[in-house]
Amino acid sequence: MSAFRGTGRAEGFDLAVALRRFVPISVLVLLLGASAIVAPGTLSFSALTGFVSDAAPLLILVIGSTMPILTGSIDLSVAGIASLTGVLVVQLAPIFGPWTCLVVLLIAIAFGALQGFAHAWLQIPSFITTLGTLSMLSGLSLLLSNATAQPLPDSDPFITLLSNTTFGIPNTGYAVIVVVALLALLMRYSRIGRDLFALGAGERTAVMSGVRTIRVRSFAFASSAGCAALAGLALVSVTEFSSPTLAGNLLLLSIVGVVLGGTAISGGVGGLWAGVIGGLITAWLRVATVLIGVAPTAQYIVFGIMALIAVGLTTDRGKIGVIK
Amino acid sequence: MKLVAKAGEVPGQPASRSLRFPARPGRWLQSIGPVAVLVVLALAFQLASHNFLSPGNLAAIAEAVAVPVILATGLSFVILLGAIDLSLEGVMATSSMTVALLAANNVNGHHWGIWAIVAALGVGVVFGAFNGVLNTYFRMPSLIVTLGSWFIGLGIASVLFPSQVPGIRDPIVLGLASTQFAGLSLIVFIAVAVLAIFHLVLNYTHLGRMIYAVGGGEATLVATGLRVPLFKLAAFMISGFLAALAGLLLSAQLGDGNADIGNGLLFPAVSACVLGGTLLSGGRGGAIQSAIGAVILEVLNNGLIQIGAGPYVRNIISGAVIVTVVAISGLHLRRKLRIVK
Q1: pTM, two decimal places
Q2: What are phi and psi of B95, to 5 degrees?
Q3: SS3 for A252?
Q4: Alpha helices, H only, A39-146
């Protein structure tokens, strides 16, 4: 895994880099330890399996969001894609039958690739591209579902698979491992992994060295959209209902997860492993805030502040001349 | 004086620029285009539904567009810097809950009257200052800062939310929406006044010129030794103030405090700015342009409903509008090797 870490500064000991690398994992361990002391039941097997099915959608979302952020872009449309996925599964089930989920996943990946292409080829800033598509996607889910929650078709094989458990562990947990393994192999054994970091670390240099920006960006956004769709499927496999606003509050959480893991919002620093750690911290924090008695309504405040602190600590300010 | 001339040279106000250089047709099209779109849309809807331009419907459009115009005016200040303010919905939620809980209401014993209004507006200024300080002094991207404060605002509003919906009973606050002049509510006149005042601020004050200059070339401006962070801070505070005003007016209209009051108003505000010709890269556009953008969106919305399209089409259209307009307005820059994140 260490191969996927930032390629920013190789030589010499840099305190900031070392902090970025080891702080997230220590925070995770400390969090787990603290909650084990406060409420010993939280680390029991049954509690942990519950945590897995609660955390899996968020983890997948965070891993997906990491990819565009590594290139220095950002994908704000992930929550919209995840919500629309559930709605589409219900809408398309009569047409595609058992293949519905696969079709929806492919649609999402194609949409993400198109989004990345539009952002890179038309040179529209990624945040405005994805803010626009977020608005379109949430409008579309409301329109298609007529703003109501609908029951899922109960015979869908993929959703049944996701909602089952193997050896006592929810299958969504295995889905996270599959996603990470797939992306890790792709990034390790094809040049796309290094290209992602190259774009984030210094785009001009990367372009001059022959990195195909448009292709890399399309890949980053396609994988983020694909992960978002899978996260949406994992979500509806738990709720068994599709709702047009199901994933609405996951947008901020997914970005919080990315930065908490040590992936810099300025790009080029971080990686898949950081995404996994950050996602786990965020998911665990969501549990921990309930444990220590923070009202669910106040969670927004906690996560908003967490996001600001994490970004403040991890942004590489030297790289951005003018902060907009 | 020399300073002012310098600010004009950086892609400053369209007026001073067109005096200096022969106007190019693209520029001219950019400023007249939105108005032309507005006229064409209005005529098309009139042909399609026949009562689009009736006084009743025009008044309805004016009522509906008042709050979006206020939001777009505030947002213009931040977008002119080249930054973005995503926290509008959160600020509106907090200001709505603040006014509902501090003015005379059916939940607690407070009856601050006009001071409740002041407090609600103050909340917006504080949010703006928070965004501005984090963006300028802590050097964090405005996108992330305001994304964070968007959710912090929503969280504060939900925490403040009492056991039941706080209904506003204060005559002053309710009067903001119920007072009528010439068939239009006070809200419309407030919106016009806000637009006029902040248009003047942008075009005839030092602060306004500096905001254009920051958007035109921040690095140059920093090099001149001007206190750029102060101008940016002021822009964020104005945006927060006007978002709070919008939240206050909507609460007066609804008659209660609501954490979801700003729901779905951010995207139309951003697309209004973009549609009116305020560039997201900063430095070009203005309050009036953004207001025209807001009117276009409302005309489109109203016309589509009259034709029979559903209420959710609005989101889809404003999203499509943002992407399309930004893409088209940036097309001529594609030849350069630009780094777009």
Answers
A1: 0.80
A2: -65, -35
A3: helix
A4: 45-70, 78-96, 100-121, 126-145
Domains and their CATH numbers in chain A? 2-314 (1.10.3470)
Residue B105 Ramachandran class (φ > 0 left, ψ -120 to 50 alpha, else beta): beta
In this predicted structure, what is the pLDDT of residue B295?
Answer: 92
B215-229 mean pLDDT: 83
Residue A259's closest CA among A238, A234, A285? A285
- What residue type is assigned to position B112 of the chain? W
Name residue, tokens 């089952």: A164
Give per-residue pLDDT as tens, B246-275. 999 999 998 888 888 888 788 889 888 888
Structure tokens at A137: 């996607």
- Sign of the C-alpha dihedral, residues B19, B22, B27, B31? positive
pLDDT at A20: 64
Smallest Cβ–Cβ distance between B159 and the set A136, A204, A295 belongs to A295
Residues 8-47 of B with CB under 8 A from A: none
Q: Which domains does chain B have, with CATH numbers?
A: 2-326 (1.10.3470)
* A-contacting residues in B 271-290 (Cβ below 8 Å): 271, 274, 280, 282
* Alpha-carbon span A245 to A53, nearest angstrom: 19
pLDDT band, very low/low/confident/very high, at B333 (cuts 50, 70, 90): low
Q: Does B133 touch chain A (CB under 8 A)?
A: no
Q: Select the highest-mean-pLDDT range: A17-26, A244-253, B288-297, B324-333.
A: B288-297
Q: Name the B residues in 174-233 with CB < 8 Å from any A CB.
A: 218-219, 222
A5 pLDDT higher than 90: no
Q: Which residue of A has its CA nearest to B336?
A: A123
Among B144, B149, B327, whose Cβ lies nearest the Cβ of A265?
A: B144
The average pLDDT across B44-61 equals 85
Q: Rounding to the nearest 10 degrees, give the CA dihedral for residues A104, A83, B322, B245.
A: 180
Residues 6 or more apart in contact with residue A2 via CB below 8 angstroms: none
Q: Which of A131, A139, A322 sits opposite B313 (nearest CB)?
A: A139
